[in-house]
């Protein structure tokens, strides 16, 4: 019985690759230094899998940036502006595409399916001259072989590659990406031939696009591509095996039961690559036994549901994690062991001790008092079946709010955070490490808030924020104060390039032992007569940016978080905060891959948001904020959130967002599409901002438009923020005189 792993994290157990990359980019170390770190990481991964007994060990899943960019390099599809003149693509051209250089910005980056991993979007047009320009797959295969490990080289499949691309500038409307298939297949054939010559007997083509809703034309491309590959590669017997995700693919098992091509291998992805939970080995074993009955003993391979890239690296580096919680977890290194244990169990070599330890952990997770909180379960169950809406409609509410707030037209505000200086980060870190007393910490934060309040008053902003100086991260801050969350020391997951995130782990029922933000928000409000926004992260965003428990549906967990945030909203209101912003930055990114599942998700996600604020007075103004630009398909859900004001990251996709309203979607609540991009250090001029606002006014009513930047200002410097906001306020004031 064989075992297989789809792919493995690249960063290393302590983010070794991140530090090597950043040091190389800063010119502090050489290309050889970087190569050495990368090679060491690869070799330790291969050795570990080989020691663990994995039969099919992947190679070429390592990357110094991204596997899609690696494929772009393999195909020589470098956009001309990067000045590549042929030859093997090296770090200079590669990292210029990834990160830009002094004269050319980076290529676009976008989210990989429904994960938090981002890939570099290939830009393809009829002019691209494909050529075999990066031999990385072959080099890494040989590198492993030299270490005594025979691996399965992994390639992003040709059809998914094209479908993940975008048409190059100038051909956006007229170009079919799939029309390039016959141009890239010859390169794939070259790569495969070279891999075969080097000794590879298996090659893994990742075609993740197959999980999407595809049209006949796209499906046809798969058939065409793989029969062409087969025909050209004599000796390679067609597609020999198929790997499926049996965790996310809720219908996969039934489909396989309904018929699987005879004589082919089934790589059964039963170990979840998307979370940090230990596998329920007994239950996986019964799934595998059923599959064995269908495909036969010698054709079943135990595998992971997807690449382990999307999970944390190694539990060994979590000495501080609570022992019981730790027994419920498996990071990438542990998942490899699980895969192998399952494979051995199927062929009669069950490691009884390992299985009974696992069963004990599963049982403890089911019965542990730290997981279940009866009161929370009951409160969440009571929510179901009822709708949660504020008692008056939005226009009545806006009237009541305006009586209290008395804002000018085109009111100005910001999204929450202000620049986080090194000094500020230091104070927070030292307080956490108990090197700074509570008193000194409060004093330092208070001073910072005061500075931010005074600055906003000087700038003459209408609705103020406290600047979030006490927060390291908008999810972590709340997770740390809620019950049911655990945090790791090294549970990093690659987000893009060298950037990693460390999602909290939601292991139990979520509740709020005490108020989380009221102290700071009241303090900030006491410093000014202007309205001070209370600032919260919404339940859907907390959920989508965490590792979520898998022992109850996601929506249950989301409702529990919603109830906790509801308590916070109501406490803020009681403390005299009249404007409360509940960020749902990540609502859009939780959208399921299949269209048939969209409505269900949007329903509970939007419902969760409404639960948080359905209980406030008409005169309390609820804001929300959303990042990332693809809203057009969910605009009706956004309206259904029924916030009084929504601010939206917009400046990178201006026309798209406004076109919804141009096409007649009615929006009656306040809306603030960001007027400038805070991701760039560039300072927008007053004219430019005024222009932007005027464009918005052409489609949106004057009395609902707000003027604000795209997102929080945390990553910017004061030298950028002050003039930018000053221009923003000046633009708003100038436009006000016109009405
Ligand atoms: N309130 C958060 C902040 O300003 C929102 C962050 C975001 O836009 N993602 O930092
Ligand atoms: Zn944002």
Fold and architecture overview:
- Zn(2+) binds at residues 625, 627, 636, 640, 649, 711.
- Its cofactor is Zn(2+).
- It holds the Pfam family Meth_synt_1.
- Belongs to the vitamin-B12 independent methionine synthase family.
- The chain is of the alpha/beta class and 739 residues long.
- It is built from 26 helices and 20 strands.
- It has a 5-stranded parallel beta sheet with strand order 16-17-18-19-20. Strands 1-11-10-9 form a 4-stranded parallel beta sheet, covered by helices on one side.
- Strand 10, helix 10 (281-295) and strand 11 form a beta-alpha-beta unit.
- It is globular and about 80 Å long.
- The N and C termini lie far apart (76 Å).
- The chain binds glutamine and zinc ion.
- The site of glutamine has 13 residues, from loops.
């Amino acid at each position: 019985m064989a075992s297989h792993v789809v792919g493995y994290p690249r960063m290393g157990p302590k983010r070794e690759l991140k530090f090597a990359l950043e040091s190389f980019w800063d010119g502090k170390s050489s290309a050889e230094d970087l190569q050495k770190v990368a090679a060491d990481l690869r070799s330790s991964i291969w050795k570990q899998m080989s020691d663990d007994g994995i039969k099919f060990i992947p190679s070429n899943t390592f990357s110094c940036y991204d596997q899609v960019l690696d494929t772009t390099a393999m195909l020589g599809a470098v956009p001309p502006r990067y000045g590549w003149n042929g030859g093997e693509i090296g770090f200079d051209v590669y990292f210029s595409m990834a990160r830009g250089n002094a004269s050319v910005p980076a290529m676009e980056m976008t989210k990989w399916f429904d994960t938090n991993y981002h890939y570099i979007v290939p830009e393809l047009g009829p002019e691209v001259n494909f050529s075999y320009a990066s031999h990385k797959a072959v080099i890494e295969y040989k590198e492993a072989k030299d270490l005594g490990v025979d691996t399965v080289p992994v390639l992003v499949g040709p059809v998914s590659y094209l479908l993940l691309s975008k048409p190059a500038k100038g051909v956006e409307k007229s170009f079919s990406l799939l029309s390039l298939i016959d141009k890239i297949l010859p390169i794939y054939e070259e790569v495969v031939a070279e891999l075969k010559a080097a000794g590879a007997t298996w090659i893994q083509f990742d075609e993740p696009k197959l999980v999407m809703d595809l049209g006949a034309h796209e499906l046809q491309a798969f058939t065409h591509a793989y029969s062409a590959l087969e025909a050209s590669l004599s000796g390679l017997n067609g597609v020999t095996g198929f790997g499926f995700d049996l965790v996310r693919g809720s219908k996969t098992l039934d489909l396989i039961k309904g018929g699987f091509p005879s004589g082919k291998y089934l790589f059964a992805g039963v170990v979840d690559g998307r979370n940090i939970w230990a596998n329920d080995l007994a239950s996986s074993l019964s799934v595998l036994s059923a599959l064995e009955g269908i495909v036969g003993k010698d054709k079943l391979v135990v595998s992971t549901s997807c690449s382990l890239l999307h999970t944390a690296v190694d539990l060994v580096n979590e000495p501080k994690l609570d022992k019981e919680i730790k027994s419920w977890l498996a990071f990438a290194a542990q998942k490899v062991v699980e895969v192998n244990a399952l494979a051995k169990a199927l062929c009669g070599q069950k490691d009884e001790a390992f299985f009974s330890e696992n069963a004990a952990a599963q049982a403890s997770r089911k019965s542990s008092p730290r997981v279940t909180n009866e009161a929370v379960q009951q409160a969440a169950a009571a929510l179901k079946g009822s709708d949660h809406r504020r008692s008056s409609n939005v226009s009545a509410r806006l009237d009541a709010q305006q009586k209290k707030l008395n804002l000018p037209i085109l009111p100005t505000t910001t999204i929450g955070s202000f620049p986080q200086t090194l000094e500020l980060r230091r104070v927070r870190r030292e307080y956490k490490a108990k090197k700074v007393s509570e008193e000194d910490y409060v004093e330092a934060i208070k001073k910072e808030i005061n500075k931010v309040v005074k600055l906003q008053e000087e700038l003459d902003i209408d609705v103020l924020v406290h600047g979030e100086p006490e927060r390291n991260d908008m999810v972590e801050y709340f997770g740390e104060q809620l019950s049911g969350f655990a945090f790791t020391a090294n549970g990093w997951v690659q987000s893009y390039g060298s950037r990693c995130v460390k999602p909290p782990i939601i292991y139990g029922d979520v509740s709020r032992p005490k108020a989380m933000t009221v102290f700071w928000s009241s303090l900030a409000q006491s410093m000014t007569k202007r309205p001070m926004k209370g600032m919260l992260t919404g339940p859907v965003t907390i959920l989508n940016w965490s590792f979520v428990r898998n022992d109850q549906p996601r929506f249950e967990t989301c409702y529990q978080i919603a109830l906790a945030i509801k308590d916070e909203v109501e406490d803020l209101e009681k403390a005299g905060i009249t404007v409360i912003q509940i960020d749902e930055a990540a609502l859009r990114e939780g959208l399921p891959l299949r269209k048939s599942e969209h409505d269900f998700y949007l329903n509970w996600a939007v419902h969760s948001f409404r639960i948080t604020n359905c209980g406030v007075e008409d005169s309390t103004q609820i804001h929300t904020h959303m990042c990332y630009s693809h809203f057009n398909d969910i605009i009706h859900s956004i309206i259904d959130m029924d916030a009084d004001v929504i601010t939206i990251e917009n400046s990178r996709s201006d026309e798209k967002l406004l076109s919804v309203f141009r096409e007649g979607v009615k929006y009656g609540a306040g809306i603030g599409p960001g007027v400038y991009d805070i991701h760039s250090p560039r300072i927008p001029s007053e004219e430019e901002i005024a222009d932007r606002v005027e464009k918005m006014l052409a489609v949106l009513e004057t009395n609902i438009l707000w003027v604000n930047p795209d997102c929080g200002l945390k990553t910017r410097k004061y030298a950028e923020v002050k003039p930018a906001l000053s221009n923003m306020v000046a633009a708003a004031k100038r436009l006000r005189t016109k009405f």
